[in-house]
TrEMBL record:
<protein>
    <submittedName>
        <fullName>WbqC-like protein family protein</fullName>
    </submittedName>
</protein>
<dbReference type="Pfam" id="PF08889">
    <property type="entry name" value="WbqC"/>
</dbReference>
<dbReference type="InterPro" id="IPR014985">
    <property type="entry name" value="WbqC"/>
</dbReference>
Amino acid sequence: MKCAIMQPTYLPWLGFFKMMNQVDIFVILDDVQFSKRSWQQRNKISLSNQEKMLTIPCITKGLRHQRINEVHLDLSMNWKLQHKKTLEQAYRNYPYFSELQSILEIYNEPTNKLSEFTIAIIKEIANKANITPKFILSSELDATGVKSEYLLNICNELGVTEYVSAAGSKEYIEEEGLFAQSDIFVTYEQSESFIYKQYNEKPTLPYLSSIDYIANHGYLSMKEEVL
């Protein structure tokens, strides 16, 4: 049984769903340190063929050691409406814009926490693309530890036999050596930027949110794209 463990990110790129599509269990790592100005709260789309960064304002002043699932959205400004309008402006003329509607509706929901908002979008994209691992929040488990120790303890608690890791974690996983001492096999997923045809024949900007792919090609082909 395969497992991947990833922090929740805002409007994740296709590589996020490629990992998800490989596993039986997808653990959303929601109880580790929140990192300001990271993919946890921002991502890139294409607006008029230029990169546009969308960043979620969060309440962080005086709260340096918040976990991801403790971070509250800053609702003092109407950023949800602004992001929604930006997505509509960016993609309304794309062939599969209508398939973004269920995601855009999430911006209308009265969500107060960052992880609740981003996880709702992640699960909606996965569901529409028919990517169906079992979703588990790390905060719901009993496992403890730091870095690879925590990842290994999660895998042991779930009884998995193979851990699919992002390539960026390889250095510290192998340096710490805990997985090598266990019975759990580790593979590393290294995704390059996905290149796909744009509706307007412009070059694909690298490492955009999966929203861009969906607007161009729809959910039906997304699962094939991330095989």
